[in-house]
Amino acid sequence: MSLPPDTPQGVADALGYLQHHLQELMERQHVSKNNINSTLAALTAQLQQLTQLVANPSLPPPAVPNTPPPPIPSPLVSPSPTLLTPRTRPKLSCPLDFNGERHNGRAFLNSCSLYIHLAPEQFHDEQERILWAFTFFKGGCAAKWSENVFCQEVDTSVFPIQTWGEFEQQFWLHFFPANAEADAINSLEGTSYHQGNRMVDDYLNSFQALVSDAGYMDPWTLVVKFRRGLRLGIQNQIATMPYGRPADTDPNAWYRAARRIDQARLTNEAFQSASRSAPSASLRTVSARPPPLSAARLPLAPPPPVIAKPPPTAPSMGVPMDVDVTRKARSLSPRGCYRCKDTNHVVRDCPYRLDVHQLTTEQQEELIEDLLALKDTVPIEESCPPEEEDFV
After folding, report:
1. Are 236 and 251 in the same domain?
2. Is residue 362 classed as helix, strand or coil in its secondary structure?
3. pLDDT tens digits, one per residue of 230-250
């Protein structure tokens, strides 16, 4: 039975299993029917012989046929639920388009090999695998190489690449870095591969790619190169471990120790940043000021009244040596309250007296701000020229 082309693979597998199981049942039924017919025929013949023997006892007894018993059909096995369940498979993603850049050649070839390994039933032969890989050659040198391959097929009527192994060799020759080993060795002998400001995971990934391209296999050499490229603080911590220091011939232990120290450093930095931000938030919460105090709860001193100065009086010309007469007159004037500048009472009887010790911190700050603002609004008296005294 043909299925529509858009039938899912799981449904097609389940239908195929059911068809095969139905065919087995029909075959077993046919065999059982033949066995039953042959048994009935044998029984009928023996019954006829027995009837003749009863009617004529002088006849010899019939010979018992030496026929094997009919085969017993095997019991039918009910299909397992797991077999009837449509088979599911992971969703595969196709390789990305390839434009021929050499630094992306290894990744493209690995993705193609992985897809073919996971879904081999989608390709009938190696020729289909090669043609499928060519469908991703778009742009750049990859498209030109694909075009040359198909031109050779047109000229010779034979596809120039016959096996997947040959395709990998040709791909390696055209799209892998030409001097990957030499470039990797030069990088490892210099300082460009050092960690710098990168994380240990990023540094380790690039380092392992370099040693793979360079062909370094000696464990001691790997440890020396890895340690030399590490950040100074991390490699000092690993080298001076009192317990559990990795051996100089175990690169994997050095990789794990560097990762562990870098992760601890990042965790500590995150904790410190959170600790620094917590006090500032609490300060902002505490410093939230209550609504300003009203004048009824916190009376403020009114601006001091402006007292007009009496015009200076000229000293008597007939009293010699009495040059301080005006100064004495000023000093004998009543002092009054130095808080509100009122001459009718002294400071201890001032109605605007305020005990700052009974105020909260917020009230004291608000009082200071109000006093400063009040000071800014007091008109500035015009300065009078100094009095000139006449000397006799």
Report:
1. yes
2. helix
3. 999 999 999 999 888 999 999
- 186 and 250 both lie in a single domain: yes
- Is 383 within the bounds of a domain? no
Question: How many other β-carbons are positioned within 10 Å of the β-carbon of residue 257?
Answer: 21
Rounded CA-CA distance 15/2 in Å is 11
Total number of domains constituting the chain: 4
Cα–Cα separations (whole angstroms), residue 222 to 188, 235, 254, 338, 341: 10, 14, 10, 86, 88
> Are the C-beta atoms of residues 109 and 168 closer than 8 Å to each other?
yes
* Residue 6 CA from chain centroid, whole number: 38
Q: CA angle 233-183-107, nearest 5°? A: 90
Cβ atoms 76, 28 nearer than 8 A:
yes
Quote the CA–CA distance of 66 and 42 in Å, as a whole number.
Answer: 11
Q: Residue 338: give the domain boundaries.
A: 325-377
Q: Are residues 184 and 280 in the same domain?
A: yes
Let me know the angle formed at the C-alpha of 296 by 293 and 301, rounded to the nearest 5 degrees. Answer: 90
Q: Residue 372 to residues 257, 274, 377, 381: CA-CA distances in angstroms? A: 62, 38, 9, 18
| CA atoms 209, 215, 216, 217: torsion sign | positive
Q: Does the residue 4 lie in any domain?
A: no
Cα 286 to chain centroid distance, Å, stands at 36
Cα separation of 327 and 332, whole Å?
A: 9
Q: Rounded to an integer, what distance in angstroms lies between the CA atom of residue 135 and that of residue 62?
A: 80
Look up residue 126 and give its amino acid: E
The tens digit of pLDDT for each residue in 278-326 reads: 655 444 554 445 555 444 444 555 555 556 556 666 555 555 555 555 5
Phi, psi of 160 (to 5 degrees): -70, -20
pTM as predicted: 0.40
The answer to whether the beta carbons of residues 103 and 177 sit under 8 Å apart is yes
Tokens coding 137: 């050659």
Measured in residues, the chain has a length of: 392
- Give the whole-angstrom CA distance, residue 150 versus residue 157: 10
Question: pLDDT per residue over 115-138, tens digit each?
Answer: 998 888 888 888 889 999 999 998
